[in-house]
């Protein structure tokens, strides 16, 4: 039996002549933490607003727990939303802010206070109920907004870049807290972000969007290891994007013409090779078990626990990521070899759209 809390089928949304969303299909299971990831303008917030009921798509359906809610107003949907702007009532106490939702639904004052106190305890704000929002830090205000969203016990929680206003250190801290809260609640979270590190560290699955379409869905590490497109490879993590040519009907060539693999199962049209920086072994000599590409070491950039090494391989610039110990004997201007395993090379369609 399906445990899907959210099912989206063939959803499209236009603003004038602009296609903001095109044929979106997505299923979210109960208890999943899903990240909608992509650049600004890719459609992730528009999709979230269609799910919430603030926008109505021209085509397609939105089902929550099996019920078609595509044209229901937001207040009739079993979900809640946490926005970038926490929109707390400044004249109300923290407890009153959280209790506002239950009170509007007709819950008695005593029960609303009880549930709101429990929600504040869940987000780590026990004892903060009498304070005003202005007396809280940004991270604490974010947690009040979260408590207000979960107090009505929604089946699905939507979060529209709720951490974007926090500084980096606090943002990292709240990310961990948010994931722990989601585990304790056991409800599905749909989290909009443009930050790939945030999505990779928090989400069970990532929905990668581009130009109003879903580019790829999967676990962060799977998209990183095996991207489905040039866009996915370039957006998730660091990547060397290498032009690949079809030498003939049965082989491909890379960079200096090295034959890399049979072409029978590769996509049609232009191709791109995707090679992650950590998969390049830089050495003065070829490695026996790898494809060795002659190069010149151009630059070494130290970044804390590792270093980025820039290589010139013919007319192509490669970036390798090495541990400090692997830099021994390497200096700028030195002829080297970029040694790669063919199994580490992904071949994707060459279209960058």
Q: Compute the gyration radius: what is it?
A: 25 Å
Question: How do the SSEs run, as a string of H and E?
Answer: EEEHEEEHHHEHEHEEHHEEEEEEEEEE
Main β-sheet description: 6 strands, mixed
Total of helices: 8
For the secondary structure, the number of strands is 20
Low-confidence stretches: none
CATH H level of the largest domain: which superfamily?
Answer: P-loop containing nucleotide triphosphate hydrolases
CATH arch. level architecture of the largest domain = 3-Layer(aba) Sandwich
Q: How are strands sequenced across the largest beta sheet?
A: 6-7-8-3-9-10
As for the number of domains, it is 2
Quick one: overall form?
Answer: elongated
Question: What is the terminal-to-terminal distance?
Answer: 38 Å
Beta-strand residue percentage: 25-35%
CATH class identity of the largest domain: Alpha Beta
Range of helix content: 10-25%
Describe this structure in words.
- The protein has 353 residues and is an alpha+beta fold.
- The protein has 2 domains: 4-225, Rossmann fold, CATH 3.40.50.300; 238-349, OB fold (Dihydrolipoamide Acetyltransferase, E2P).
- 24% of the residues lie in helices and 35% in strands.
- The protein is built from 8 helices and 20 strands.
- It has helices at 44-52, 94-104, 109-122, 138-150, 168-185, 196-202, 220-225, 230-235; strands at 4-15, 18-29, 33-37, 59-64, 67-68, 79-82, 156-160, 188-193, 205-210, 213-218, 240-246, 252-254, 258-259, 271-275, 281-283, 291-303, 306-313, 316-322, 335-340, 346-349.
- The strands form 4 sheets. It has a 6-stranded mixed beta sheet, sandwiched between helices. The chain has a 5-stranded antiparallel beta sheet with strand order 13-12-11-14-20.
- The radius of gyration is 25 Å and the shape is elongated.
């Amino acid at each position: 039996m399906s445990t899907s809390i959210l099912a989206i089928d063939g959803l499209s949304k236009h603003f004038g002549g602009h296609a903001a969303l095109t044929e979106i299909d997505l299923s979210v299971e109960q208890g999943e933490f899903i990240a909608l990831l992509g650049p600004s303008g890719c459609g992730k917030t528009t999709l979230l607003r269609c799910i919430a009921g603030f926008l109505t798509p021209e085509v397609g359906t939105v089902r929550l727990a099996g019920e078609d809610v595509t044209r229901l107003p937001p207040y009739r949907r079993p979900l809640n939303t946490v926005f970038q702007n926490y929109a707390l009532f400044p004249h109300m106490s923290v407890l009153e802010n959280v209790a506002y939702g239950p009170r509007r639904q007709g819950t008695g004052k005593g029960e609303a206070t009880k549930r709101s106190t429990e929600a504040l305890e869940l987000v780590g704000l026990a004892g903060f109920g009498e304070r005003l929002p202005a007396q809280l830090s940004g991270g604490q205000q974010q947690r009040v907004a979260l408590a207000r969203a979960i107090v009505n016990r929604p089946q699905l929680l939507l979060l529209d870049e709720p951490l974007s206003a926090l500084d980096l250190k606090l943002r990292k801290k709240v990310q961990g807290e948010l994931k722990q809260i989601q585990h304790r609640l056991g409800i599905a979270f749909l989290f909009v972000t443009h930050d790939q590190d945030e999505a990779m560290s928090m989400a069970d699955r990532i929905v990668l969007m581009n130009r109003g379409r879903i580019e790829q869905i999967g676990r962060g590490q799977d998209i990183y290891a095996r991207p489905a497109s040039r866009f996915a490879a370039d957006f998730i993590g660091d990547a060397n994007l290498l032009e690949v040519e079809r030498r003939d009907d049965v082989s491909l060539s890379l960079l200096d013409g090295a034959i890399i693999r049979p072409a029978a199962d590769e996509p049609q049209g232009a191709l791109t090779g995707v090679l992650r920086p950590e998969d390049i072994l830089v050495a003065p000599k070829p490695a026996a078990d790898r494809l060795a590409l002659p190069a010149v070491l151009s630059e070494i950039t130290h970044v804390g626990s590792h270093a980025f090494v820039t290589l010139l391989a013919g007319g192509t610039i490669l970036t390798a990521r090495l541990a400090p110990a692997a830099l021994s004997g390497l200096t700028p201007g030195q002829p080297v070899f970029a040694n790669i395993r063919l199994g580490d090379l992904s071949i994707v369609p060459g279209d960058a759209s």
